[in-house]
Amino acid sequence: MFYNSTRNSEVKVKSAEAITQGISAEGGLFVPESIPQLTLDEIKAIGDMKYADRAAYVFSKYLTDFTDAEIHYCTDNAYSTKNFETESISEIAHLFDGTYMLELWHGPTCAFKDMALQILPYFLTTSAKKINLDKKIVILVATSGDTGKAALEGFKDVEGTSILVFYPEDGVSPMQKRQMKTQEGSNVGVCAIKGNFDDCQNGVKAIFTNDDVKKALDDKGMMFSSANSINWGRLLPQIVYYISSYAELVKDGEIQLSEKINIVVPTGNFGNILAAYYAKHMGIPVNKLICASNINNVLTDFINTGIYDRNRQFYATVSPSMDILISSNLERLLYLMTDKNDAVIREWFGKLATDGRYEVSDAVKAKLKEEFSAGFCDDGQTKATISSIYKKYSYTCDTHTAVAVKVYKDYKETTGDKTKTVIASTASPYKFSAAVLEALEGKKSDIDEYDKVEKIAELSNIPVPAALADLKNKPERFNDTIDKEEQKDYVLSKLSN
């Protein structure tokens, strides 16, 4: 299996190179040259495996330059009870008839990003050895909240690496900010940006492709890589949990083998739902992929009209991990939907950079409508959904998952589609305690963050994850804040220390 760049199809690298580089030299994203297939018999057999083995089986289809021993080294170390609080790694909760919550937040940082970022360091260090890379790998991360902490936790004290995370100063929850500021590890760094997530992400992308910065790193025996979902090694593990959940539902007798399901994903950067797209095209029977957005509904508009337009008001919401107007992973989808037409991708994403807008072809618009449905909701609807689910089903969900539930409810009412449905539940409710508690009690509370956590625990009977409870007594290590224009100089200054 080789990997091409979305902006230059002539680029052809093995997975180890794609993972270590993170992004192609001209700014394109790496995409496997074909999507491997799973038969229904294979899917059924996956249901009888433990999660680490399910992951290894899927990875073997994509990481063909890895040995079985190397793949199992990665999966066995990442997906174990030393990292996750449940042996199943992910859990499936039955919300109501034919609707299932795929809980992806039982890892060390209580968000779905752990599912990928616990294994990415093993992928990256194994890949570096495979290609005889003797450079120190510098991980640059832009985060809207969850990726940052999950990446920091995954890479802390990993030999041969250092990691620097940028987050929007006022664009993450208090708990997410606390998680990053108190991060342990000798090779980690965290900095706030005066701006939004797109400012952080654009800055990181610009640094990645800056020849002067790359030369400065090379002179120091260093190279960049990424822990964002622009890195194929971040996206690949996300494919696994959709395949795993389908196989698990078959095993449990909830669905019949070959029965189609819907998958609903709250997403901002499009990576999590793109992983579901890959799972579908590998062979998981899927009826509709439902893309759920908050009021920053650029993806909803795009799927419904074929016009991507980031020239709109940016909103800071109670679901901050989706407060994004430039969805990087959409580039991979469009590359596939244009039959790998790199010239068209360069044109569209060139227009996005210069004009903030592009419109896809009629053929691509038709493909989008065939594969996806899309919807959005605002903060008031998000909180009302948290309250409604709690009252009806005694189930407490976070603000991002609530967006998905609301969008799915609207989809079901509009279409009458009764297909059994898996909703990706992306974070613990404790990570967004202010909004969740307000939803549960029907009023805002002025008690401090940790008292809010305790109050939610009292109401929901969900144990507070130790990783969050322990934050209260940890000292803050990182308090830097810079303007977005200073990112490059900040990175260079940190690397010279």
What does this structure look like?
This protein is of the alpha/beta class and 497 residues long. The chain has a domain at 91-108 and 233-462: Rossmann fold. Helices cover 46% and strands 17% of the residues. It has a 6-stranded mixed sheet with strand order 4-5-15-10-11-14, with helices on both faces. A 5-stranded parallel sheet has the order 9-6-7-8-16, sandwiched between helices. A 3-stranded antiparallel sheet has the order 2-1-3. Strand 7, helix 8 (174-181) and strand 8 form a beta-alpha-beta unit.
Index terms:
497 residues, Rossmann fold, 17% strand, five-stranded parallel beta sheet, alpha/beta, globular, 46% helix
Helix content bin: 40-55%
Summarize the main sheet: 6 strands, mixed
Low-confidence stretches: none
| Cα gyration radius (Å) | 21 Å
Q: In percent, how much strand structure appears in the residues?
A: 15-25%
Overall CATH class of the domain at 91-108 and 233-462: Alpha Beta
Q: Give me the CATH architecture of the domain at 91-108 and 233-462, please.
A: 3-Layer(aba) Sandwich
Terminal Cα span: 39 Å
Output the structural class: alpha/beta
Overall mean pLDDT stands at 95
